Amino acid sequence: MKYLVVRYTKPYHKMQGQELIMDMLNDPKIQEAFQVLHPGGTWSGLDCKISRVVVSVVPASLTRLDIFDKLMASSPTIVRANGDIAKCMDDVREGFQISDLIRDLLLNEDSENAGLYSNEERDELLWRLFEHMVLGGACCQFEDKLEPYVEITKRLYKELVSAHKDPGTGKIQVTSVVYKINAVYADSGALEFYPSKSRQNFCYVALDPTRRIVKVLYHAFVPYW
């Protein structure tokens, strides 16, 4: 995993993310600092002119953690009243071991709780980060309780996005706009941005237009086998 914070001076509208990301990835200093993982476990900078990037906007509207309350109100219960995560029969989906009902919810389309969260809720950055933390890496150690997953998700979310209190309503609102880099192209074609295909590959770019700061969170999944 790599984390990069960049301050920029050129004015961009908050929805000009694609242009900003293109300019950022073509900056010589960023090309050296922002490294990607290749097959074999080696890291390197981009070292080429980027001709095109494909990005998508990631919703980041949540300012509370109550999205996780459903995990304790589901049927069958995913998280018990004491915070313990309910276990289930072992299974493997998409190369990930399922041994509890949270992973079953995330990976198994036939899960009894598959409809607990809507597509819109699952698309939120806060939920995406939670999913990434639960699934972890190839050699991750599972947690028996929900709290550690929620705590690290909260810390990552607060680090990535900025928020302020609306003077009119008094409500906290997220001011950052978040993008996900889906593909990067040079003149020669698509670049290898990850060593292998996985739902745990991600590169989120959070743009804070007020402070003119960009935060980049990159993770490449490397299978153990």
UniProtKB/TrEMBL annotation:
<comment type="similarity">
    <text>Belongs to the CFAP300 family.</text>
</comment>
<dbReference type="GO" id="GO:0005930">
    <property type="term" value="C:axoneme"/>
</dbReference>
<protein>
    <recommendedName>
        <fullName>Cilia- and flagella-associated protein 300</fullName>
    </recommendedName>
</protein>
<keyword id="KW-0206">Cytoskeleton</keyword>
<dbReference type="InterPro" id="IPR029416">
    <property type="entry name" value="CFAP300"/>
</dbReference>
<keyword id="KW-0963">Cytoplasm</keyword>
<dbReference type="Pfam" id="PF14926">
    <property type="entry name" value="CFAP300"/>
</dbReference>
<keyword id="KW-0966">Cell projection</keyword>
